[in-house]
Amino acid sequence: MTNLLKTEWLKLKKYWAFWWMTGIVALAYPGMNYSIYYNGYKDQLKDKNWGPILKMLPNPFTFPDVWQTVAFISSLFVFIPSIVVIMFITNEYTFKTHRQNVIDGWSRKDFMTSKMIDVAIISLLVTVLYFITATIIGLDNSTNPSGNFWKGSQYIGLFFLQVFSQLSIALLISLLVRKAFIALGIFIFYFFPLEPILVQLGKRYANDAGKFLPLEISDRLIPAPRFFFRQQSEWDALVAQSNIHILYTVLLLAITWGICFWINAKRDL
Amino acid sequence: MPHYLQANFTEMSSVLTLNSISKFYGPIRALNNVSFEVPQGSVFGILGPNGSGKTTLLSIILDVLKANNGNFLWFDHPGSPEQRKKIGSLLETPNFYHYLSAIDNLKVTQSISGRGTREDIDEVLKKVKLYERRKSRFKTYSLGMKQRLAIAASLLGNPKVLVLDEPTNGLDPVGIAEIRELIVELKKSGHTIIMASHLLDEVEKVCTHVAILKTGDVITTGDVNEVLQDEDVVEVSAADLNVLANVLQQFSSDISISNVSNTVQLLLPKGTAKLDEINRFCFDHGIVLNHLLLKKKRLEARFFELTNN
Q1: ipTM over cut 0.90
Q2: B1: CB partners within 8 A, 6+ apart
Q3: Which of A7, A95, A103 sits opposite B89 (nearest CB)?
Q4: Are A134 and A151 in contact (CB under 8 A)?
Q5: Which candidate among A34, A37, A123, B122 keeps its CA 20 to 30 Å from the CA of A226?
Q6: In terms of Cα–Cα distance, which of A12, A6, A71, A1 is closest to A36?
Q7: Taking a C-beta distance cutoff of 8 angstroms, is the pair B201, B262 a contact?
């Protein structure tokens, strides 16, 4: 495993797209969170009807709620790291380095495990950037941050699980399609708008069956912040299903990687 | 298997044994029951026209492709990642990370295979004359430079077995000669080299053994001298070629006079030419030979014969 990690790091550390992605995420996460804080949340506080109710609720950008709020907003931008995942794996096929890795002495299982490590590294990096963003925003807005700092920090783990799950779907598409731009097109189109439309249709016509769609399964790990909802019951229902979606997400991950390993073991390289 | 091959193989242990390997791409038969052995210390050339299955065969023994039937053994054991780590391989095209330099690419090769050290990377880059450009990105290399890097990767850590698919692809004449010398040098130091090529001159100059493929079938395989000589060609010359030709009719009915080389050529069944007897016979009949040679048939001619091209 150490050897796989070392080898992947040799490939990744000089891959410019990886560092561009890191830079973009490092700017986009605080940028989007602050933008929603000022333009979404603070603007709503001024609303005649909704504002007084919101003021009675805790500020979602203070500890402990900031973990959930920032996790939710940041998760809307998983497509940024997904671009790196897709390009990094399809590069292996474009330049046939996946073959060379096997020729040089990796088993096919080693190769796929190394891709899992790549997805884990990128998910971890994105989670670290989320952690830094949430910490800064939380400290910036909380009057007594130390008492509530770690409350609600389970969202760090849930955020990692969500990113890892969704990037794994991106990897599966790359493995199936092998062409960078086609894989990117399929993933982005599915990410937005296709799956959101299907989820809404599911809610309306199919007893919310859309909750089992590949991205929605992990989307529901992190419910939207309270100020997104006018009805308390609607928000409560969403929070209540978060736990079962941990199980669904783990199952989906097992299926996704099972398919990846199986395809890679069976087909010609 | 021809009897002469059996004799050779009992003397040397096999590095690679192929047993009835078949590969199909849908209805297309790429390889059909391919079997042969690669003796230790040999330079084994796999020959064949385009599409004959050379690269498919090498891809199977390197686990890039799965055979539909048959199996192969490296050092009498089924193929495994651990065995591949000990084999330096160049398959089809140079496959490297386009955004990494030569050094960084070889670090990846080293990390996966465990072959060589940091110093060895510099050494192999010097050997293939790429050291000056070692820090340039792979995508900036010419085709010849890419091929040199692929050869450098296969040489990393001095593996005892090399699999080289068209190793001189993209190289200029000097580069081709250098690779040929390198292969001869490696053979002298006890390496086994399995090499696919369609450059017959290249194979003829360096290979000790060959297997010739045609549309997935092995037409012939064995010691290169045995394969090339399906009959003995004896070339003789004396002051009077016509007299010489008349006298030699006792040895062979297939005699021709070449006015270009000023020689008489006798074709004899394989393995029957005895030069000392011919020399003595001519001398006894009052002819002093000034030239006597047992010639190999050119591989090119033999290849065309075998593949009916």
Answers
A1: no
A2: B35, B36, B221
A3: A103
A4: no
A5: A123
A6: A71
A7: no
